[in-house]
Amino acid sequence: MAAPSTSPDQTVREDTPIPHLTRAMWRVGAVALLCILVYPIFKFVDSLRDRFYVFDPPLLHDLARSAVAAHPGNTSDMVDFILANLTATYPGHTVALNTNRSEFFFNVAGGAMGVYLFIFGTPLGTEGHTGILTADDYFHILEGEQWAFAPGSLGREIYRPGDVHLLPRGTAKQYKMPDGCFALEYARGWIPLMVPFGIADTFSSTLDVPTLWTTARVTVREMVRNLRIGKI
Questions:
Q1: Helix (H) and strand (E) counts for the chain?
Q2: Could you confirm whether the keyword Isomerase appears in this record (predicted)?
Q3: Are residues 132 and 205 in the same domain?
Q4: Considering only CA atoms, which of 100, 143, 139 is closest in space to residue 125?
Q5: What is the pLDDT of residues 53-74, one digit of tens each?
Q6: What strand order describes the sheet that includes 164-167?
Q7: pLDDT one-digit tens code per residue, 18-28
């Protein structure tokens, strides 16, 4: 029997590209091009970030050590000491500080839990992952101890009152507060990009919606207060 004939319109070529695969390749190419274009802009803006910083890390370290020396073992008095000195050193037209020491709220990030108002800590002990942050994080120990462990290390780092634990941006560690521990924490860098790490556990484990609302409300409020005085 003769093979059935096929008109040109019915002929299917084996090398005809698959439409959805072609669209996917275009999307990948567009994303890659966008990254190439955005990267130099990001690098330029990142090189200017030091112009917008107000707090000086060595000064904050001296302040934390002075608080520890003046009120050893008394976190409440240390918080008052720190707030009084910060407001005296940094006037309201340079940075808008939240001096409401009663406005503490839970913060769960990387599996670790604490309370956050520039002062981070818990009287119960906690541990977790630091996260890979977009800012340098200065953790000034006021009370208790913090232990840390970096990949490849065979021993733990121990930070005690008066010490500062610096976590450079882009790095990560496991950390633990074996008992109660409080610290003066200062993050220096791209703070808004750290927000997803700070709230992710709400959706994956705690489902603590009231704390999420408080976190968002206070964060936005303090950002707006600083934007009003030209602080980025």
A1: 5, 10
A2: yes
A3: yes
A4: 143
A5: 888 999 999 999 999 999 999 9
A6: 106-109, 112-116, 119-122, 181-189, 135-143, 164-167
A7: 566 677 788 88
Q: Is residue 159 part of a domain?
A: yes
Query: Rounded to the nearest 5°, which phi and psi values hold at 53?
Result: -80, 145
Residue 108 phi/psi, 5° resolution?
A: -120, 115
- Report yes or no: 79 and 115 within 8 Å, Cβ to Cβ: no
Q: Which tens digit of pLDDT belongs to each residue from 68-109?
A: 999 999 999 999 999 999 999 988 888 888 888 778 877 766
84 and 155 housed in the same domain: yes
Owning domain of residue 42: 20-51
Per DSSP, helices labelled H in 113-159 are none
Pairing relationship of beta strands 174-177 and 135-143 according to DSSP bridges = unpaired
CB proximity list for 121: less than 8 A, separation 6 or greater: 75, 114, 115, 142, 143, 144, 177, 180, 181, 182, 183
The residue type found at 85 is N
CA pair distance 183, 124, nearest whole angstrom: 14
Helix runs in the chain, H state only: 19-47, 57-70, 75-89, 195-201, 209-228
Contacting residues for 39 by C-beta, under 8 A, at least 6 apart: none
Helix axes 57-70 and 75-89, enclosed angle (nearest 10): 140
Q: Which pairing describes strands 135-143 and 126-129: parallel, antiparallel, or unpaired?
A: unpaired
Handedness of CA 218, 110, 178, 157 (dihedral sign): negative
Residue of 209, 68, 37 whose CA lies nearest to 145: 68
Q: Exposure pattern of 185-200 as b/e (b: 16+ CB <10 Å)? A: bbbbbeeeebeebbbe
pTM of the model: 0.78
